[in-house]
């Protein structure tokens, strides 16, 4: 009798283990190193753990450059660099100025490069898409070409002489930073999910270096509006960032029939220079924007909540992330499938802050605490590593890029209430070089089988 019970229990345990290790989806990111770019595919198991990985060359260059940008070692940022449309994956090649189109085998997770298409500018970093007005397999795709991320470093007492990148001449009054460049733009494409054909259509807008190039492009819930976050002029490595120029959040009306934009409006605020990632609210025209380069009295603006009424974009709320007084460098955002949770990841502090969102788009802190609730990645992670996030479809797991130093993907478990618990750090094998900026992983996308 005991043997029978033991056999039954063992069979149940083995079946449970087999179910937990079943591959039920895949994650994708890009190395964005100093050589030919690669897209990395990683298995996701039923229990959320990450498994086998594979690398696929894009035949176009990554954009990392450790010799650029002084102490920043070439770091630059964006959100939405990898997108999956039907049975195809689109990825930016920031150094090759191209978009790679891969055919995606949804059973195996495998990729096959179809072609590379010119991005229409310099340093493509972000992609968004929406069905055309006719629906079906035809899409509009918008690519943000960042061009560069000019910045200033140091300059305070005991911090060393001020440094200007790409050079001091760039910042001369009336100089290049004020110029509107065609290669610093948002570019429109048509995409067929039936054939995988990506076709350039037209440049939608270009930007002045005073307020920088695109970091994130994203359509709202019904595709009638397109928003674009841009760099400002950041001032790093100093306690007194006096040289900041504000970043901007632009909103346009988007015509899904013609692919045209109109009605440009934007939000900017002095003292906020590093708007990177943002997410549209699932139910309203509110935008949740993460900001990392802030003057001291704007530290409670790591997250800004904006609302677009069709004529103007205005701030409705702002919050600190992490410990509030720390410079945790909030940079990326993601909302849960039901729109009730907002998460903000911070590059410097290697943490993810958690907020609640109601049906009206109002953001509130979790619980009754005056402090923001947040969860750190693996203990000992070097400052300046955390970037894009991805949520599993069932809402049980979050995956976060260790994009700049650890070259890894972290898994965090999500409770029924939306709280996070770190549970796994997964190393990307194709990242064979070491040191900050050897790679600058861009984008994190996935699907369920």
CATH fold name: Methylamine Dehydrogenase, Chain H
**Termini separation:** 41 Å
Question: Helical residue percent?
Answer: under 10%
Q: What does the main sheet amount to?
A: 5 strands, antiparallel
The helix/strand class is mainly beta
Query: What count of helical segments does DSSP give?
Result: 1
CATH class: Mainly Beta
Strand content: over 45%
What would you report as the Rg, rounded to the nearest angstrom? 22 Å
Mean pLDDT: 93
Given as residue ranges, the uncertain stretches (5+ residues, pLDDT < 50) are 7-16
CATH architecture: 7 Propeller
- What sort of overall outline do the alpha carbons produce when their principal axes are compared? globular
Q: By CATH's scheme, which homologous superfamily applies?
A: YVTN repeat-like/Quinoprotein amine dehydrogenase
Question: How many strands?
Answer: 32
Number of domains: 1
Q: What report would you give on this structure?
A:
By secondary structure, the chain is mostly beta strands. The chain has one domain: Methylamine Dehydrogenase, Chain H (7 Propeller), CATH 2.130.10.10. The protein is built from one helix and 32 strands. It has one helix spanning 2-20; strands at residues 23-30, 36-45, 50-61, 82-85, 88-93, 98-104, 111-118, 124-131, 138-145, 151-153, 163-165, 180-192, 198-208, 214-219, 225-230, 234-236, 248-254, 261-267, 275-280, 286-291, 303-308, 313-319, 330-335, 341-346, 351-357, 363-365, 373-376, 386-391, 397-402, 408-414, 420-427, 442-448. A hairpin with a 4-residue loop joins strand 21 and strand 22. The longest helix has 19 residues, at 2-20.
